[in-house]
User: Which sequence fits this backbone?
């Protein structure tokens, strides 16, 4: 995964509604963030899978950041 894709993902996280980030279940949140990130960058299946795994491993951080924004 490229640094550009990572920046786009974290931009999506920063611009997402705090309520969504905190209230969605894990699978739905991963799906939402992948979908929103792929709107900005064309990803192949391998990159999409890697992005999903990356988001899954960072869900606690994502929710902590959202909680701090409240």
Assistant:
């Amino acid at each position: 995964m490229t640094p550009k894709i990572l920046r786009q993902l974290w931009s999506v996280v920063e611009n997402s509604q705090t309520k969504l980030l905190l209230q969605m279940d894990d699978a739905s949140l991963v799906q939402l963030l992948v979908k929103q990130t792929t709107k900005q960058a064309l990803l192949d299946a391998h990159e999409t899978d890697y992005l999903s795994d990356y988001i899954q491993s960072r869900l606690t951080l994502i929710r902590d950041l959202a909680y701090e924004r409240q």
